[in-house]
């Protein structure tokens, strides 16, 4: 899979869908249980950035895998469970870990600039990781070191997760008057 193209497409789709929205629309929440468009985008930044220290350690060859990474069936199980949970066509909402919740955003913050810069940074990380992809390199979740899966699966989770939140943000847009 060409992950960089997929990330660029996700960025383009967010801009195409929400680039003309006012700051008020970007922060609009149909209910207290629903994130705004801006919160969905900020959540993706926070979620994706939580992988960057792991990526940095992999590149520096200082990454220390968790003990659970020695069991390939566990790695495959966790990776597939997480990927299925973040699929874009899955309608069931999942409560995120507190470390990945979006912060309060303000109308004067340019979420598109933040998101675009972040997506470029994510693409750069994937380019740097290219020599490690397809090599069954096992990492752990940024949320829990006991949850391990392949680096390739992590990238797939990130890209799929972005598509899921694009769809969630599009649901919010349907509530605009």
From TrEMBL:
Family matches, as SUPFAM superfamilies: DinB/YfiT-like putative metalloenzymes
Every DinB-like domain range: 11-169
Signal peptide: none
InterPro entries membership: DinB-like, DinB/YfiT-like
Protein known as: DinB-like domain-containing protein
């Amino acid at each position: 899979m060409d992950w960089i193209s997929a990330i660029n497409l996700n960025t383009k789709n967010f801009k195409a869908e929400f680039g003309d929205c006012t700051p008020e629309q970007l922060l609009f929440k149909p209910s207290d249980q629903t994130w705004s468009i801006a919160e969905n985008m900020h959540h993706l930044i926070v979620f994706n950035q939580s992988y960057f220290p792991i990526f940095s350690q992999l590149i520096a060859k200082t990454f220390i895998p968790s003990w659970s990474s020695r069991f390939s069936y566990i790695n495959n199980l966790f990776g597939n469970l997480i990927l299925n949970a973040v699929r874009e066509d899955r309608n069931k909402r999942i409560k995120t870990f507190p470390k990945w919740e979006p912060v309060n955003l303000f109308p004067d913050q340019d979420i598109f600039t933040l998101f675009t810069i972040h997506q470029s940074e994510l693409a750069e990380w994937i380019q740097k990781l290219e020599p490690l992809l397809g090599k069954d390199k096992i990492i752990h979740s940024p949320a829990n070191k006991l949850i391990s899966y392949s680096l390739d699966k992590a990238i797939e989770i990130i890209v799929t997760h972005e598509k899921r939140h694009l769809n969630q943000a599009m649901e919010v847009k349907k509530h605009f008057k």
